[in-house]
Specification:
Elements lengths: L2 H16 L6 H12 L6 H11 L7 H25 L24 E2 L2 E2 L4 H6 L8 H19 L2 E8 L4 E2 L1 H10 L9 E6 L3 E7 L5 H17 L2 E7 L3 E3 L9 H11 L9 H11 L1 H4 L4 E6 L9 H13 L2 E6 L12 H6 L5 E4 L3 H5 L8
Parallel strand pairs: 6-7, 6-9, 9-10, 10-11
Antiparallel strand pairs: 1-2, 3-5, 4-5, 7-8
Helix pairs in contact: 1-4, 2-3, 3-6, 6-8, 10-12
């Protein structure tokens, strides 16, 4: 990797720390690893890779956006300056320290005297799902595939034994030497494990979710390619396990087939009864302490919510974590006062917005946190 880029990335990490975001040495290593695996000339890919590597949490997302835009603009300016000095130079260059402003001093709305120009992908990420077209869905597939690739190759903080080149494991090396009569014949080594999340997704396909369901399900189908295991269920007035119905093919075709084959699609919803059915039929076999359960619903329910308390309590007790994605939560005025949402909230680790691609991107670091 270009040494100048390493220095530039270290400055970005320092800027995040100074702004109050916890970024450690292992996160910096994750970031370098992530940049190796993406197109470094693609701002969206670099943005998503670093957000996942630095484990940016929702409360820091706006701060991250500001600092990233400043960092990218500075990197681009450095690259142009380096190109003028050395026409054959490639990659991002470090600006001389005396001339480098602090990240927090750069206004995110402007770069020098010109406005920041957003790529079509950046515009798409902020477009509300109810405003999206079929063409947008196809463009989203490309973005989601990149996210899935990054998630699938994410490095854990946990280290595991390896026969490849890795960091020396002195404790295991000493134990091995004792077993070999006190001789150090070779060093035991370890490396950082790959993190592939184990997921169970329960997606509301009732009428009130129509503007969002197809985009959210396409996101879930992308996650499925990156997860160690991923079980997908749809619920409306009844619960349906979608996993056996999924076959390789384009997302649009899969969604059309599911809409035709799943009973009650775009009808009413009985969230409590459906989650109780999941608890009774699938919880013991599909969920364990390594599983993240994701419920995707607006929490609007026509049925009895009394069963919801018991179902959510059982799910939370068994799962690693429970995340609830609610398209309505993208509105800053939203309050979780709908009966089903209010009943579920005590058992939810995070209630997150799910109204556009940007909101879904913030979910990714939580899947392996």
């Amino acid at each position: 990797m270009n040494a100048d880029l390493v220095v530039h990335l270290a400055r970005f990490g320092r800027a995040l720390r100074e702004a109050g975001v916890r970024v450690g040495a292992s996160d910096q290593a994750d970031a370098l690893e992530a940049l190796v695996r993406v197109d470094i000339a693609d701002r969206v890919e670099v943005h998503d890779a670093l957000a996942a590597a630095f484990k940016i949490e929702p409360q820091h997302s706006e701060l991250y956006e500001r600092l990233f835009l400043a960092w990218w603009a500075q990197a681009a300016a450095d690259d142009r300056q380096a190109s003028r000095r050395e026409p054959s130079a490639r990659g991002l260059r470090e600006r001389p320290a005396a001339a480098a402003p602090g990240f927090s001093e750069l206004a995110p709305e402007r770069v020098g005297d010109g406005q920041i120009s957003y790529s079509s992908d950046a515009v798409l990420r902020k477009r509300a799902f109810e405003e999206c077209s079929d063409a947008d869905l196809r463009a989203m597939e490309r973005l989601m595939a990149r996210w899935a690739r990054l998630l699938a190759t994410r490095l854990s903080r946990r280290r595991v034994p390896t026969r490849r080149r890795g960091t020396p494991d002195l404790r295991r090396s000493f134990r091995r030497a004792v077993a070999q009569g006190g001789e150090f014949r070779d060093l035991a080594r370890r490396e950082r494990a790959r993190e592939r999340p184990k997921l169970v997704v329960l997606c509301d396909t009732s009428g009130s979710m129509d503007p969002h369901a197809r985009f959210l399900l396409s996101f879930v189908l992308a996650l499925r390619r990156a997860a160690a295991s991923c079980e997908i269920f749809a619920f409306n007035t009844s619960l349906v396990r979608l996993t056996p119905l999924l076959r390789p093919g384009r997302v649009e075709e899969t969604l059309r087939r599911l809409q035709a084959e799943v009973p009650g699609w775009s009808s009413g919803t009985r969230i409590g009864e459906c989650l109780a059915a999941f608890r009774d039929r699938h919880l013991a076999r599909r969920v364990d302490a390594a599983t993240t359960v994701i419920v995707i619903s607006d929490g609007l329910d026509q049925g009895d919510v009394a069963p919801l308390d018991g179902a959510m309590r059982a799910i939370r007790r068994r799962a690693r974590s429970v995340l609830w994605l609610n398209p309505l939560a993208g509105d800053p005025r939203y309050e979780p006062t709908a009966r089903a949402m209010a009943a579920a909230l005590p058992y939810v680790d995070r209630l997150l917005p799910a109204h556009d691609l940007d909101s879904l991107a913030r979910l990714l670091p939580l899947l392996s946190a």
